Amino acid sequence: MTAAPQFIDLNHHLSPETLARKVNPLKDIIRVVTNNPQLISLANGDPHHSLYPIRRIDYEVASVASDDPVAQWKSLGASAPTQILSTSKDDESKRLLNSALAYGHGAGLSEALRVVTDINIKYHTAPNHVVTMTLGNADAITKCLRMLATPGDSFLADEFTFAPMPMAAEAHGVNWVPVKIDSGGLVPEELERILANWDPKRGRRPHVLYTTPCGQNPTGSTLSQERRKQIYDIAQRYDIIIIEDDPYYFLQYDAPGSEPAHMTKDFAKSLLSIDVDGRVIRIDTFSKIMAPGMRLGWITSHPAFHTHLVKFIDLSTQNPHGFGQILIVELLGPHGWQLAGFDRWVRSLCADYQRRRDFLLALFERDVASTGFASADVPEAGMFIWVRVDVEKHPRFVRAADDATGANVVKTNTTTLMTELFDACIADGLVICPSSVFILPADPRYDDMPSPIDDRSNFIRVTFAGSEETMAAGIPILGRVLKEFFAGSSPTK
Ligand SMILES: Cc1ncc(COP(=O)(O)O)c(C=O)c1O
């Protein structure tokens, strides 16, 4: 067996905030007690577990005994087979109950860390990385960005992105630099171009890339293995830390047409699995495969980053969500689904979302693409279809001449028309997400694309996460509104 490569020292990426952050002295004392349970502790002001008004927690969860457990769960409704995961003060699960409900280690319960490490071992190759539990990906990303952001730094991200994350870092002085994205995800050549031509007058060259490789939100794009390798190679050459935000990893699909009973193909190889330096920080969540209200996920990172993250957690959110940790420990433990059952569930979930995707695409073809005013690619993962609206076919579409200075200026009225389309949908009872809400917040002075981002915002994001009834009701409205919108010349009906 060949030994795993040693990670390189990446501490120069840490922010002044991170370096200035001290260890929470109270947490240090708690750790002494946790590591030596025989010590008599008069140290901590935690409520004693005998006063928690909870004797037992029963989670009644779907059975994963069938081949397609999600289909069974949906079709049988209240009579679908279930299993009870019970954690009680009165049996051997007492320790789990008491420790999960107490103030805990910032990294998470040791049992929960074991569970997510087992998930990592099954789906990724990351022998040297370590895990930290989080309150979901939003929590994880904002913490990682703060761990790395020196005010005035420039960070890279997909030009259309899950904007709340970059916005949070903007408030910490990060300037975002958009990288072009197409139907195959982030374009490596564009990443390289930005880094190779970086003007030092703009400050330090970007040292962090935030990206979503599978079923990217909002574009639905998935990076091919080849692009992943190219991106990692560029990250090595330009010393970039990659924040791999991958909430849709477990929602990957086959091509349309195949009737999925169960997803059998391999899940895509993550950027984490390519990482030999320790420069990929991978962010996972239970939000899309269990329930978002669990507020539970995990970071997989270089041990040095783990240490700083735990320090941060110890001085902020304290520890991950106790009830959620009990659920995953029991669910993946010997009395629950175990890892094999978890795999069956997520593969069956893939099949369910694939059916939803194909259902939405069929409606889209019938009612929207047929208008000749919009088109969409087939997403290989995630929850979204990125609909391109052919604004240039609109009777009031205007393309202004380049301004004399040659600087990038808004050359079309795409934003105005897309706003009108959004309003027209609302007036007809349909809400869609306009691409404008996903634009990476970046300084327009440095937008050196052939056309400015506003001119490329002729997209809307439509989700297939909802019910078939919602899709069947909504897509015909979109088709109708598009037809009326492209026929009429007045801004509102
Ligand atoms: C790309 C992306 N990152 C992060 C999140 C937030 O995930 P969580 O619920 O785990 O905080 C979402 C949720 O929609 C998302 O699409």
Automatic annotation (TrEMBL):
GO molecular function (one): aromatic-amino-acid transaminase activity
Keyword NAD applies: no
Organism annotation: Trametes pubescens (White-rot fungus)
Keyword Transmembrane: no
Family designation: Belongs to the class-I pyridoxal-phosphate-dependent aminotransferase family.
Membrane-traversing stretches: none
One Gene Ontology term from the biological process aspect of the record: lysine biosynthetic process via aminoadipic acid
Domain Aminotransferase class I/classII large, chain residue ranges per copy: 126-471
PANTHER family (alphabetical): AMINOTRANSFERASE (PTHR42790), AROMATIC_AMINOADIPATE AMINOTRANSFERASE 1 (PTHR42790:SF21)
Family matches, as InterPro entries: Aminotransferase_I/II_large, Class-I_PLP-dep_aminotransf, PyrdxlP-dep_Trfase, PyrdxlP-dep_Trfase_major
Cofactors (names): pyridoxal 5'-phosphate
Keywords annotated in UniProt: Aminotransferase, Pyridoxal phosphate, Transferase
Protein name stated in the entry: Aromatic amino acid aminotransferase C56E4.03
Pfam families named among the record's database cross-references: Aminotran_1_2
